[in-house]
C-alpha cells in the first residue's frame, strides 16, 4: 500500500498528511528532527510495521512544519506552533477522539495538546520522551557530532542516522531521507525551543489513559528516573520499559515494541464516563471572551491563543466540577457552551467562570437560559441555545445574566440574588425575554449593620 498524501492548512503553513487503514485514528506525531512520510515509506521495516498497525485502525502520518513535503520555509518553529499543527491535523480527521503516538522531541507539545484538549485524546503513548527539554541528555556519540552541524550538515545527519540504526540498510535509507527531509534551520531552532520547554505543570491535566514507554538502552538520552517521574505525574499512566538495540520504535521488533502499543490501544478505556447530555429541558450556559478581536490585535495571535487555551482548560474543569457537560462542538477557542440539570449548579458555574476569566485577563460575557434542547452526537441544538447566546452578549464583562426561566427555577438557590434588567429584544428571537443579573447575596453583617438594602426591582433567592 502506497500512502496517499493530501494537505491540511495550519495558519499559513501547509501540512502533508497521509492516512492508512480504517478505524479509530492513531496519529503518529511529527517533530522537526524526523524524516518525512516519503522517507519513512522507503524503509522496509518501518513500512511493514506501519501496515500492520493499520490493520486494526487508521494510522495518520504527517510532516511537521519545516519537514518533508510540508511548508519548509517557516518563521514560527515553537512548541506552541507545533501544537497548533497537531490541532489542525486532528481537526481535519473529523473524529471525536484520536490516539497519539509520540516520541522524543514531540513530547512537550503533544502533552500540551492532550492537556488542552482532554475530550480529543482517547489514549496517549509517550515513547522515550520528556516534559522538560533539559531532561534530555544526548548520549556521548551524538553529542560529539555537534561540531559537524555547522561544518557539514549532511555528514552530521548521515552519521547520526548510522549511530541510531547501525551500519545497516535501514540506517543508510534513514540517512538519505534525513538529508532530503530535515531542514537545518528548522531543526536547530525547534531544538533550541525544545531545550527550553517545560510543560510539567500540565501533566496532572492529562486525563486520558497514558502509556509511558522507556527505551532502556543509553542511546535514547533519557534516564529511567525521568520516565518514572513522567508516568507518576500523569493521573492515569503506566510505565513500560523495553529493549531495542538500534533504530526507532516504528522500526523495532514487533513483539517487543509495537505489540504492547496495540494491546494498550485495544484495551477498553477505563477513563471516567462523561455525563450524558440531557434530552429535553436543560440549563444552558454560554460564555464568550469579551472583544476577542481587539485582544488578539493587542496581545498578538500566539499570545492570545495561549491565554485562551489556558482559560478553556480552566472553564472545562469548573464545568465538570459542578456536574455540567461542556459541549465538544461549541468549544471555539474564545467561547464555551455547557449544559446542566440543576439551576443552582449552572449559576455557581457561571459565577466561577466569570472569576476565572477575570483572573486570566480574558473577561467573559456570560448568559444562562433553560429550555428544550436537541441532542445530536456530542452537541446540542435548539432555540434555547440561541437565547442563551444572545443573553450572554448583553452582559458586561464578568457579569452573569439569566432569563426569567432560570430565575424561576433557582428559587431554592442560596447565596445569590437577582437584579431585574427588564425585557430585552434579542436578535433573531420574536418575543422579548426578561433578563436578570446574578448578584452575590450581601453578608449578614452588611444587611444588619448599615449595609445597603437590595436595589428596587431585585429579588433575593430564598434559602
Number of helices: 17
pLDDT < 50 runs, ≥5 residues: 269-277, 329-333, 443-463
Q: Label the overall shape.
A: elongated
Computed over alpha carbons, the radius of gyration is 26 Å
- Oligomeric state of the chains? single chain
Summarize the biggest pleated sheet: 9 strands, mixed
> Termini, distance in Å?
68 Å
Features:
about 475 residues, nine-stranded mixed sheet, eight-stranded mixed sheet, 17 helices, 17 strands, elongated
Textual characterization of the structure:
The protein is of the alpha/beta class. Helices cover 39% and strands 24% of the residues. Strands 9, 10, 11, 12, 13, 14, 15, 16 and 17 form a nine-stranded mixed sheet that branches. Helix 3 (79-93) crosses helix 4 (107-116) and helix 12 crosses helix 13. Mean pLDDT is 81; it is low at 269-277, 329-333 and 443-463.
SSE map:
Elements: E1 4-10, E2 13-20, E3 25-28, H1 37-41, H2 44-53, E4 58-62, H3 79-93, E5 98-104, H4 107-116, E6 121-129, H5 140-143, H6 146-151, H7 153-165, H8 169-181, H9 184-196, E7 210-215, H10 224-233, E8 237-242, H11 254-266, E9 280-289, H12 292-299, H13 301-321, E10 325-326, E11 335-340, H14 343-359, E12 364-376, E13 379-381, H15 383-394, E14 400-403, H16 404-409, E15 416-424, E16 433-440, H17 444-448, E17 458-460
Helix pairs in contact: 3-4, 7-8, 12-13, 13-14
In short:
With 463 residues, this protein is an alpha/beta fold. The protein contains 17 helices and 17 strands.
Amino acid at each position: 500500500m502506497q500512502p496517499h498524501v493530501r494537505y491540511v492548512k495550519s495558519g499559513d503553513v501547509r501540512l502533508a498528511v497521509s492516512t492508512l487503514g480504517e478505524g479509530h485514528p492513531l496519529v503518529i506525531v511529527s517533530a522537526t528532527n524526523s524524516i518525512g512520510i516519503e522517507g519513512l515509506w522507503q524503509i522496509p521495516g518501518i513500512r511493514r510495521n506501519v501496515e500492520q498497525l493499520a490493520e486494526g485502525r487508521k494510522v495518520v502520518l504527517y510532516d511537521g512544519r519545516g519537514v518533508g513535503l510540508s511548508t519548509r520555509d517557516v518563521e514560527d518553529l515553537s512548541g506552541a506552533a507545533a501544537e497548533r499543527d497537531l490541532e489542525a491535523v486532528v481537526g481535519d480527521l473529523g473524529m471525536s477522539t484520536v490516539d497519539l503516538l509520540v516520541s522524543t522531541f514531540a513530547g512537550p507539545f503533544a502533552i500540551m495538546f492532550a492537556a488542552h484538549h482532554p475530550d480529543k485524546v482517547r489514549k496517549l503513548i509517550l515513547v522515550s520522551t520528556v516534559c522538560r527539554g533539559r531532561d534530555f541528555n544526548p548520549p556521548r556519540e551524538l553529542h560529539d557530532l555537534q561540531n559537524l552541524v555547522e561544518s557539514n550538515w549532511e555528514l552530521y545527519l548521515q552519521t547520526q542516522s548510522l549511530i541510531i540504526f547501525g551500519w545497516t540498510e535501514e540506517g543508510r535509507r534513514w540517512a538519505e531521507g534525513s538529508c532530503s527531509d530535515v531542514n537545518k534551520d528548522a531543526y536547530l531552532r525547534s531544538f533550541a525551543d525544545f531545550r527550553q520547554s517545560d510543560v510539567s505543570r500540565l501533566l496532572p491535566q492529562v486525563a486520558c489513559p497514558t502509556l509511558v514507554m522507556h527505551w532502556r538502552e543509553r542511546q535514547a538520552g533519557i534516564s529511567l528516573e525521568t520516565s518514572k517521574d513522567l508516568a507518576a505525574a500523569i493521573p492515569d499512566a503506566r510505565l513500560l520499559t523495553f529493549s531495542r538495540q538500534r533504530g526507532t520504535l516504528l522500526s523495532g521488533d514487533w513483539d517487543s515494541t509495537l505489540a504492547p502499543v496495540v494491546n494498550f490501544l485495544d484495551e477498553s478505556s477505563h477513563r471516567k464516563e462523561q455525563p450524558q447530555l440531557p434530552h429535553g429541558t436543560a440549563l444552558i450556559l454560554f460564555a464568550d471572551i469579551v472583544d476577542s478581536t481587539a485582544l488578539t490585535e493587542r496581545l498578538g495571535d500566539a499570545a492570545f491563543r495561549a491565554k485562551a487555551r489556558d482559560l478553556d482548560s480552566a472553564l472545562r474543569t469548573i464545568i465538570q466540577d459542578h456536574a455540567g457537560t461542556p459541549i465538544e462542538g461549541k468549544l471555539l477557542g474564545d467561547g464555551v457552551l455547557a449544559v446542566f440539570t440543576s439551576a443552582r449548579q449552572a449559576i455557581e458555574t457561571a459565577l466561577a467562570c466569570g472569576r476565572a476569566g477575570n483572573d486570566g485577563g480574558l473577561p467573559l460575557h456570560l448568559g444562562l437560559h433553560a429550555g428544550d434542547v436537541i441532542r445530536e452526537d456530542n452537541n446540542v441544538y435548539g432555540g434555547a441555545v440561541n437565547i442563551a447566546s444572545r443573553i450572554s452578549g448583553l452582559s458586561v464583562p464578568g457579569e452573569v445574566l439569566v432569563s426569567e426561566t432560570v430565575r424561576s427555577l433557582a428559587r431554592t438557590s442560596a447565596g445569590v440574588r437577582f437584579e431585574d434588567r427588564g425585557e430585552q429584544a434579542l436578535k433573531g428571537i420574536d418575543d422579548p425575554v426578561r433578563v436578570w443579573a446574578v448578584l452575590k447575596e450581601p453578608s449578614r453583617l452588611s444587611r444588619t449593620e448599615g449595609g445597603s438594602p437590595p436595589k428596587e426591582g431585585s429579588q433575593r433567592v430564598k434559602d
